[in-house]
Amino acid sequence: MPLGTDILGDGWRDVDVPGVGPLQVRRPLMRDVANASGNSYWWLACVRCTDGTNLLPDGVPAADIRADLGNAILAEIMRDRPTAGSSAAFGA
């Protein structure tokens, strides 16, 4: 029997990262993990501005992000976000 769609990515959520401001982040997917090999900045695919645009303007290298702010953004991406169980599981 195939696994349910609850194991798929769960989309974007709004966050407020101290020192950066409001952003949207999503949980990393297996494709992000696959891209991590040789790309230290894989996590930029998991963050965007609240209007849907890229976090960094074109031509700005990810290596120029301040480490403290990059770590704060990455921590928000990786933060555990429990989800509610299905209604079928209620009372089980």
Major sheet: 3 strands, antiparallel
Percentage of β-strand residues? 15-25%
What general outline do the C-alpha atoms trace? globular
> Number of DSSP strands?
3
Q: Order of strands side by side in the largest beta sheet? A: 1-2-3
State the helical fraction.
10-25%
Summed up, what is this model?
This protein is of the alpha+beta class. The chain has helices spanning 30-36, 67-78, and strands at residues 12-17, 21-26, 47-48.
Walk me through this protein's architecture.
- The protein is globular and about 45 Å long.
- Strands 1-2-3 form a 3-stranded antiparallel beta sheet, covered by helices on one side.
- The chain has a domain at 11-56 and 64-81.
- It has helices spanning 30-36, 67-78; strands at 12-17, 21-26, 47-48.
- The chain is α+β, with helices and mostly antiparallel strands.
- Strand 1 and strand 2 form a beta hairpin.
- It has 2 helices and 3 strands.
- The chain starts with 11 loop residues before the first strand and ends in a 14-residue tail after the last helix.
- It is 21% helix and 15% strand.
Please supply descriptive tags for the structure shown above.
single chain, 92 residues, alpha+beta, three-stranded antiparallel beta sheet, globular
Break the fold down into its secondary structure elements and pairings.
Elements: E1 12-17, E2 21-26, H1 30-36, E3 47-48, H2 67-78
